[in-house]
Amino acid sequence: MSYENTNSQCVINTNKLNDVDKYLARVPKQARASLVKLRKIIKATVPDAEEQVSYQIPAYKYKGMLVGFASFKNHNSFMTMSPPLMKKMKDELNKYSTTTGTIHFPFDKPLPIKLIKKIVKARMKENEDKRKK
Question: Which of 48, 54, 78, 91 is most deeply buried (CB count within 10 A of its CB)?
Fold first, then answer.
């Protein structure tokens, strides 16, 4: 497994992987357990979601793109794919490092399961509402 530098962040060189299991197999052990748990939470919350690798990261589709995740050198990222949701939940997310549509989870801290489920459900609703329009 290798890391490559991209804009001062390190990402896994996935060599265009097309399978989430293959992606996870290449993630360092310290990060993998957290991503496996994140995957289980997403799949349990949205059993009908389509799992895929998109832009070289595991991603889930449910009536459109839903969420994704990736491993970086110093953290795992959970991509909400929704800047409006991130703004709406800013108070709940203030103890995490975030970007416009992504939450960073350190390897050495437990995942906030309730928060992740809440985000996934909110993203489902966003996608369902978009489909209705």
Answer: 78
pTM for this prediction: 0.85
Cβ neighbours around 63 below 10 Å, total: 17
Residue 50 tokens, joined: 């389509």
| pLDDT tens digit sequence for 27-66 | 999 899 999 999 999 999 999 999 999 989 999 999 999 9
For residue 35, report the phi and psi dihedrals to the nearest 5 degrees: -70, -35
DSSP string, 68-126: EEEEBSS-EEEE---HHHHHHTHHHHTTSEE-SSEEEE-TTS---HHHHHHHHHHHHHH
Burial of 61 (0-12, 13-18, 19+ CB in 10 A): middle
Nearest to 26 by CA among 66, 92, 70: 70
pLDDT of 119 higher than 90: yes
The pairing of beta strand 65-71 with beta strand 50-54 = unpaired
DSSP assigned state of 130: H
